[in-house]
Structures are given as C-alpha cells and as structure tokens.
Amino acid sequence: MSPDATVIVVAATGHVLGMVTHEGDPDGAPSAAAVAGEAFPLRDGASGDVFVDVPVAELATSAVPVVDDLLRTPQSCAVADGAAIFVPASASVALDGKKIKISGAQRPPKDVDVRVFVEHGQGSDRQRAVLKGTLLKGAQELTFPSELEPGDYDAVAAVPGNAPAAASLSVPP
Amino acid sequence: MADLIQRPTFFEGQILGAGDLTGSLEYARSQMARHQRTLHTWGIAFGLELTGEPQVVAGENVKAVTLTPGMALDITGRQIVVPEAVQLSDAAFELVNSGVSDDTLWFPVFLSGLDETSTAVTVFGDVCGPGAAARVAEGFELTFGHRGEEQDLADQPVPGIDAGPSGAPGEQSARVLVGYVQWQPGAHRFKDVAPHGGEVPLRFAGVAADEVVARGGTLVLRSHATPESGTPTVVLDGEARELRFGPQDTRGSVPDPVFTVTADGDVKAKGRFADARTAGVQVESGVATDGVLLPLPPGISEEDVASGRVVVHAHVTPRLDGVGGVPDTVICRVDARRVHCRVDAGGGNTAPGRCDYTLLAVVPQGGS
C-alpha cells in the first residue's frame, strides 16, 4: 500500500467522508469528482440506504498518511495540518421549532465554518440544500436562521472538532 | 513536347559571343534553381530577422526597424541574398498602408529577389557603338503588404520544371515573408516588430527528401542550429542500434535520454503516459472505503468510460487487515465503480467498511 491515502473531505470543515489508495498512480492526486462523482453518499446506519448526498462542490481531496482510524472509522476522522485525526461524536443536530439547531459541540478555539446537508422528499422529488453557518469561538450551539417547511428531513451536520451528526427531523404542520 | 534543356558546349576555334557565355551562366543558374525548388522547400535559409531599435519620436515610443543580413529561397528556387543590414522605410510603409489608425494591427513585410542591371560599359570607346551592361546585380526588394496579405503567399505560382529563377527585370518576383510590423500613426513610425504577428508564421527553408542518410553512422535532429542545453533532440545511432530522444547538452549530445527504442524493439521511457488509451489493460488497485467512486487508472478518463471506448471491470473484497479486529462485513460490492461496503456496528446498525479493490480498464483493439 502506498504510504499516503487520498481522503475525500468536506472542504469547509475537513471532515473525512471516505478514503482510497491507488497503486497505479500513487503520486497523483485525484480530484474530488474523480473519487466521488457528482456527490458522495452518506449512508444510513440502520438501513444502509443513502441518507444524504454531499455535492461535489462541497468536497475536496487531500493526501494524508494512512492511520488505523482512517481504515477503522473513516467518517470519524478529520484532516488537520496534513494528517487524519480522530474526532469525537459530541455534536448533535435537532430541530428548534422550525429551525435546525446544533448543540453539544466541542467548544472551538476560534470561529469555525459549519455545514449542514439537508434533504427532503422522496425519489426524483428529493430536494437537497446545504446550510452554511459559523460556530463562534467557545460556543457549543448554533441555530440556523431559515425556517423549514413542514415535512420530514434528513440532515447531517459537519462541525469541526466533532464527528458528523446525523438525524431525521420532522417539522410539524 | 516542351523544349529540352540546352547545355552550352564549345569547340576549338569557335568564336565565342556574349550569348554563348551568358548561356553557360544561365544554364548553371537554372540548374541550381531547379535543385532548390525540387529538393528543398522555400523560405528563410539564414538570418533575415527583423529587429527594432527603440526610439521616442513626437512623444511616442517607436522603433527603427532593421532587417539583418541573410539568405532566403523563394518559391522559384531563387537565392535572395541580403549582404548587410538594411533599415525599413517608414515612408514606403505609408505609401502602401496610408491612414492606419489602429496601432495594434500587424502588417506583413516581404522580401523578393530583383535583378538590377549595372551601369553599361563601353567597349573600344564609341567606335563600335554603345556599350551594354557587363554585370547584373542580384538585388532584393523589401515591400509591405496590406493586413492579411501574407495569406496570399500560399497561392504564388510554381514555375514549370524547366524554368529558371524569378526576379528578372520586368518580371513579377516571388515573395518571402520576413516578419510583421505595427504602425504608430501619431509619429509616422513603426511602433513594433515581431516574427509572429499576423495570420501566417514565418516559413523557413527545408529539405524535400524521402530518404536522409547519415555519413558518420549517426543521424541527429535538432530544433536549433546551435546546441542549446535542454532543447529536445532526436538521435538515430547506427552503432548503438537505437533511437534516442531527450534534452541535449551544450555539446549537442543526449547524455540522459527520456525515450529509447532499440533495433530489437526494446523500449525504455521515463515520465508517464498522458494518454494510456492503447489497446490492452490498465490496472488500478488499492484500498477504498464505503461510498468512494473507484479511481480510474492514469490516462483513462470518465469520457472514455462513458463513450464505451474503455470497459471497466471492478472487483472488491472485504479487507481483513486486523485493524480494530476482524470486521463483520455485512455487505461488500461495487456498483458502477461506487463502493458499497458496510460492517456490523452492533445494535442492528452498520458503519462504513473498507475493502481491497482491483479495477481493470480494458481498451479493445481499435478502441482508441
């Protein structure tokens, strides 16, 4: 195996979604589109079905040394300073009325970008959105200002310093 | 049937006239022109560079443009020799291209051969009548074209096989492009000069040959007449029985070729293939986790796969590397190069798993 792996990360937060090594071109750095296609599928732990798709525009690739955590729990890793590190599952995502709220996050030492990938609907009518926010230095909570329409939503929050948090949310009429 | 070419010949006691001697010269001159236009391609053979000396005239930055000495072959096989540097005439440009207001446009500069009869000499005073010229100066003419006129060069008539070179007095001469100039209308001077400004690049004389043979056993192709370190060079080495390609050093040799093929067909190449779409199989392999789109081998693109020029086969197996214990794999498959690999996470849940993969990109014969 080559000493480095290509990790597919959320560009804004550094969260690892997947990793791949490639012996045929070990020095090459494939693009996010080459190893993710149009979107990277995050699957539901219970059903194994795709939970949300992270669009390629939100993705990036990076070459990092292979560590055991990358092989064992790739989606509990993040890239920082050119290396993959394990991040704890601390943050959660839930509803605050009709708004998406993140809570329980590790207190960041500085303001950090946060992404929430939200999907709604079924089949070809499925709607996808990316919420962008900033968790302020030392804060543990962040509520996004936009209100959701009534319905069922699947959401995955990527908060730096925390493993991705997934939840199915239901906004009442 | 056209007239055969006549070669002057002489006999003892013959009284030689001017026509006899001139015929001898014309025979040799026409023979050389036939050689030039059939065994060479026309264009600049040596020198003939347009250079600009910066000046300030009427508050404008302009250039005095000079043509360096050199030689060209025109399409008729005539040698056009410019023995010393000659400055281009601003006034001559304005005569052809009057009223130019856009100083960004490029105008072609042409060189053509022009025979000039020297001053007549008188033989025996005036006793035997007026004299005639005893020399013809093989001169040249520099002219300016309208914008885009350089494209007409390709349509110049090619003389018949038995014809001599162009440039005789009263005859339209063939032209050779030597560069381009820009015009500064405010100063009525040339603004700039360049070898590549218009639609047509400079044309350099070459060789028309179906066979090129080395005399010393090694044939070399260089991009520059004087060896410049790092410029690419091709060497066909008869002694080593191989062809080498690579950067040359200052002595003109290729000490570190990047591509070599021997007479036995063995190939050595450095670097990588940018386009691997040759018939055969390209392989990629490694480790991938759930959700990853397996990468294609170098040189194979998504378009190749989508168009069917390349057929992809992928195989995945759960990776049992012992990291974190042996995972209990729930599912491990690949759909359209997308890895679907989950391991048991307890409580009825699964988590992303890892697998070893092998991906074959098959290019069928004729598929590229």
Q: How would the blueprint of this fold be written?
A:
The complex is a heterodimer of chains A (173) and B (368).
Chain A: E1 4-10, E2 16-20, H1 32-36, E3 39-43, E4 50-55, E5 59-65, H2 68-72, E6 77-80, E7 83-86, E8 92-96, E9 99-103, E10 112-120, E11 127-135, E12 142-147, E13 151-158, E14 165-171
Antiparallel strand pairs in A: 1-2, 1-5, 3-4, 6-7, 8-9, 9-12, 10-11, 10-13, 13-14
Chain B: H1 18-39, E1 40-41, E2 43-47, E3 50-57, E4 60-67, E5 70-73, E6 79-82, E7 86-87, H2 90-96, E8 107-117, E9 120-121, E10 132-133, E11 136-144, E12 175-184, E13 189-194, E14 206-207, E15 218-222, E16 232-237, E17 242-247, E18 259-262, E19 267-269, E20 280-289, H3 302-307, E21 311-318, E22 329-335, E23 338-346, E24 349-352, E25 354-363
Antiparallel strand pairs in B: 1-14, 2-5, 3-4, 4-7, 5-6, 8-11, 8-12, 9-10, 12-13, 15-16, 16-17, 17-18, 18-19, 20-25, 21-25, 22-23, 23-24
Radius of gyration of chain A: 16 Å
Counting structural domains of chain A, the number is 2
Structural class of chain A: mainly beta
Number of domains of chain B: 3
Low-confidence stretches of chain A: none
Q: What's the shape of chain A?
A: globular
Task: Bin the helical content of chain B.
Answer: under 10%
Q: Could you list the spans of chain B in which at least 5 consecutive residues all have pLDDT below 50?
A: none
Can you give a write-up of this model?
The complex is a heterodimer of chains A (173) and B (368). By secondary structure, chain A is mainly beta. Chain A has two domains: 4-86, no CATH class; 92-171, Immunoglobulin-like (Sandwich). Chain A is built from two helices and 14 strands, in the order E-E-H-E-E-E-H-E-E-E-E-E-E-E-E-E. Chain A is globular and about 55 Å long. Chain A starts with a strand and ends with a strand. Chain B has 368 residues and is mainly beta. Chain B has three domains: 18-206, no CATH class; 212-269, no CATH class; 280-363, no CATH class. Chain B is built from three helices and 25 strands. Chain B has helices at residues 18-39, 90-96, 302-307, and strands at residues 40-41, 43-47, 50-57, 60-67, 70-73, 79-82, 86-87, 107-117, 120-121, 132-133, 136-144, 175-184, 189-194, 206-207, 218-222, 232-237, 242-247, 259-262, 267-269, 280-289, 311-318, 329-335, 338-346, 349-352, 354-363. In chain B, strands 15-16-17-18-19 form a five-stranded antiparallel beta sheet, with no helix packed on it. Chain B has a four-stranded antiparallel beta sheet with strand order 11-8-12-13. A three-stranded antiparallel beta sheet of chain B has the order 2-5-6. In chain B, strand 3 and strand 4 form a beta hairpin. The A-B interface holds A 1-2, 5-6, 8, 17-25, 28, 30, 34-37, 40-43, 45-46, 48, 68, 70-75 and B 282-298, 302, 319, 321, 323-324, 330-331, 338-340, 342, 345, 348-352, 354.
